[in-house]
Amino acid sequence: MILARVVGTVVATRKDPRLEGKKLIVVKPVSPEGKDEAGYLVAVDTVSAGFKERVLVVSGSSARMAEGCKDLPVDTAIVGIVDDVQLD
Fold this sequence. Notes:
This protein is about 5% helix and about 35% strand. It has one helix spanning about 60-65, and strands at about 1-10, 25-30, 40-45, 55-60, 75-80. The chain has a single domain (about 1-80), classed as CATH 2.40.50.220. The protein is mainly beta. The longest helix has 4 residues, at about 60-65. The mean pLDDT is about 95.
């Protein structure tokens, strides 16, 4: 799982028909403390995440097991909205 923050959206006028109606979100990985990490990911949103929300992202075969992503050509999916992170 990847902890990330929603930073944007992707609009694609032409895409695989299996992705029709799916919201594509740009996320930036963050550390548990909330500091930005390198890179960006595009993920299918399965939880209606909002701009700047912290989210949980899964990748690979785990993304294809997320709600509504079975048999879709996806590599990353947002599967949760994070309320709080606590480190001991």
